[in-house]
Amino acid sequence: MNILFKKRLLIPVVAAIILVTASSFKRDFFEIAKQIEIFTTLFKELNMNYVDETNPAELMDSAIKNMLDELDPYTRFLNEQDVEEYKINNSGEYSGIGALVRSYDDRLLIIEPYKGYPADNAGLKAGDEIVKIGEILVTDFDDNASELLKGANGTRVEVAYKRQDEMHTATIIREGVEVDAVPYTAMIDEKTGYIVLSKFNRKASSQTKAAIIDLKGKGAEQLILDLRGNPGGLLSEAINVTNLFVPKGELIVTTKSKVKKFNQEYRTKSQPVDLEIPLVVLINGSSASASEIVSGGLQDLDRAVVIGARSFGKGLVQRPLKLTYGTQLKVTISRYYTPSGRCIQSLDYWNRDNQGRAVRNTQFNTFKTRNGRTVKDGGGVAPDIEIGALKTNALIQALEKNNIIFDFATDFYYQNTFDSVSTFEFLDGDYSSFIDYAKASDFNFQTKTEKTLEKQLNSDESLLGQEVQNKYRALLLAVNQGKIDALNTYKPIIGKKIEDELIKRYFYRKGLYDYSLTHDDAILTATELLNDKGRYNGILQ
């Protein structure tokens, strides 16, 4: 085939592609314009003609949120307040009462007061339910009432709260709150440094770098980087943290999207702090996004041994896009891939089951690390060494979702005292009390077996005889009893979660970190591994 013929053949092919692309774009544009026009006319007619007064802002907010819910949980509409909170999360600074506060239905709970900050100084404790902020009842406030606790430095806010069924009041003077990315560092022994990296805000890489230098100055010859519970944050900071341990110019993340400009390669840009220091990274099921970029990248490059439990599995990248009136759309723009080519996204939000729930990936592809070790995609980052006490399951998730552990810890705190972290202990009898507490609560969850059995029993088309149905019901009762028995089976995992929650109540988060240095299975395993250079190097080969 000569060159002239190739050109003659190529020109109509390229032209056809352009025409198809242009035609596709026109069809998409027309469909978007058509749907917008339909919605606009519907929205107008609804508000003009509905039998009662409507609230257009609330209707629109509901419409947007329900539309985005069909996509994934990370694509969100941010109103003006949400935008401000998004900036705060990334900057690591805000003005408020200095406490982790969460809204559960119509309850606003203090989850954790930060030591020395306004909420703590005013005497608020974890488990306190805020009932009133100023003159506003929490139950009457449509949005997240925790926003009312924020305000300028030096301003006062009056709160009424319930503690152990008794009402109290407090005056809190707001102040600036520093949210450290690295809240804790320590020397575990004379040569092992320990760093907790709790979030990937704009301080993450600079504070981690400072921690490494500080610990090396104290004699650290090996490091443990703890990413457990770290929900992620800025992609750029994940690259920069990884860069502290790998050379300049190393590929860490590749993003792929249908939009060409979002297809990018992210490489390290700076000189590392230390290329040789032995490193262990700790992860668990709450380590997500940027945490998985760091742990997955260091694993793929055989730069660190990963210890703990399988990570969350968020392989999606979001970007905030500015809209009108100070609002934004935080939209999923791409999937990210680790150096070996893995996408660790666990849930498939675009192929849902009959109940509309995202389907969990079950087909995993294998990839190779730089040294030829086998790793897999599609289900988070799997650790090189698993720690049983960090695993989770439906029972543990239900205990946490229903606040059973949290509420038990609240009651326990007011019934028991400890003078110091060294005297703290959670005994077998205490765990038995927890089991009784869980049984007496409205705690409930369904296993897959129960759902299948109940569906069959409730089916109008069931052809089962009465005898078989009675056996099914007996089996359901047995399954329910098995769930109670499972509280004992998973005592090591549940007991650790209770201990962690309790120690924070008595001795704040620093006390928990201090306690973990000598009691946490993952830290103890990591320290032992680092002290066994033959085994450490063997895992990475």
Explain how this protein is built:
The chain is of the alpha+beta class. The protein folds into four domains: 14-54; 93-178, Pdz3 Domain; 184-386, 2-enoyl-CoA Hydratase, Chain A, domain 1, CATH 3.90.226; 394-521, no CATH class. The chain has 15 helices and 23 strands. The protein has helices spanning 3-49, 56-69, 80-91, 118-121, 204-217, 235-243, 290-300, 394-401, 404-415, 428-440, 448-457, 466-489, 491-519, 521-530, 533-540, and strands at residues 76-78, 93-96, 99-104, 107-113, 129-133, 136-137, 156-163, 166-173, 175-178, 184-187, 192-196, 222-226, 251-256, 264-267, 279-283, 305-308, 316-322, 328-337, 347-352, 358-360, 366-368, 374-376, 385-386. Strands 3, 4, 5, 6, 7 and 8 form a six-stranded antiparallel sheet that branches. Strands 10-11-12-15-16-23 form a six-stranded mixed sheet, sandwiched between helices. Helix 5 links the parallel strand 11 (192-196) and strand 12 (222-226). Helix 5 runs parallel beside helix 6 (235-243), helix 9 packs across helix 13 (491-519) and helix 11 (448-457) runs antiparallel to helix 12. It is globular, with a radius of gyration of 27 Å. Residues 1-25 have low confidence and may be disordered.
